[in-house]
Amino acid sequence: MDARTILTKLRDGETPTRDELQWFARGLADGGVSAAQAGAFAMAAVLNGLGEEGRLALTLAMRDSGRVLKWALDRPVLDKHSTGGVGDCVSLVLAPALAACGAAVPMISGRGLGHTGGTLDKLESIPGFQTGLDESRFRDIIGSVGCAIVSASADIAPADKRLYAIRDVTGTVESIDLITASILSKKLAAGLEGLVLDVKSGSGAFMGTEESARALARSLVEVARAAGCRTSALITDMNQPLAPEAGNALEVAASLRVLTGQVRGPLHDLTAVLGGLALAEAGLAPDIETGAGAIADSIADGRAAEVFGRMVAAQGGPVRFVEDYARFLPEANVIREIAADRAGYVSAMDVHELGLIVVRLGGGRQVEGDKVNPSVGLSDIAPLGTWVEKGQPLARVHAVRETAAAEAIATFRRAVSLSDTAPVVPDLIRKRIG
């Protein structure tokens, strides 16, 4: 078996066999496949597709290219994945809420990608919080706390790590086959019994149209189920930030305001529905509505916040973080209001551009290796449909320097539209798949 034979098949529109894809995945992991061959594989997959069988085979091969965790717990092992958005900090609320409702949540998360924030970057704005745990410590925290949020170790789906880096520089990211295999190889390697997926659609999503979001959601659900993991997906709206904050420390604070019962809103509501779906799939609730109620109750009575606090302490953060989170989180040097230049309804947002504002302020990476500033971003973003008078704030910018704040304010004004008539605000949850 050799790479050239596999690449020739793909070039000619044939799907490689499962054995061939397993061989190729091992080669990605151990260096037996060159960077040029990996790039050719990705491009051929984008142009010709892998088909349903090939998509499943590649996912399993990439999962099996490294270590696959197994759990012996008295509770179901569940997780959630989002395809990425702005102000999307559901993981920080959902993981402890699921744990409070009787699930184990070994959440292997990622860093910011493009205009979207990363769960690990957000959590690392908490002083001392460690995401790079060894497997023994990871297991200990899952056993004692019920949830942990960590980065993937080098031996979890190493084929995906190599192929993803190559896709990022070869214009081959936008492939449902490769996206499916990338997401699920890591999630399945975590040894999950159940998975809920939040597939975003709209101006701040990677899948901009509902049609493309549905296609990805169906692919993810079908492959995960074929691999033996109970999975469902929600198509959700990303035509405005999910939380009114975008930026690492700002989103941690937004999550804590939900966890401690200070606010509700879309972040709380989506967390409850995703959690209800996960609990129902796992048999911890008779239906989604009851499960969503259980998640909401765990937030209302403080159990989810208590679990979050224990997780933070177990992963190296402050012991009393939940009780005094504002004191621990970093604050930007410059905080400026973005005043409306006319009266009107907030009628549209370029959410992709809002995410890029955070990146340019230093809250994300423009090139690999950039250091992230956890304090910068946007806060108090007025949601769609809000009426504002001239001079009233549309949002606040958190920046390191005045010049950066001024640039962010100018970009924000171009990205957010005001009108004389109230807009039709899209439903937060559009469709369930599976």
Chain-averaged pLDDT = 93
Count of discrete structural domains: 3
Portion in strands: 5-15%
Helix and strand element order: HHHHEHEHHEHHEHEHHHHHEEHEEEHEE
| Strands in their spatial order, largest beta sheet | 1-4-5-12
Number of helices: 17
The CATH homologous superfamily of the largest domain is named Nucleoside phosphorylase/phosphoribosyltransferase catalytic domain
Radius of gyration: 21 Å
Alpha-beta content class:
alpha/beta
Envelope shape: globular
Helix content: 40-55%
- The poorly predicted ranges are none
CATH-defined architecture of the largest domain: 3-Layer(aba) Sandwich
CATH fold descriptor of the largest domain: Pyrimidine Nucleoside Phosphorylase, Chain A, domain 2
Largest sheet: 4 strands, mixed
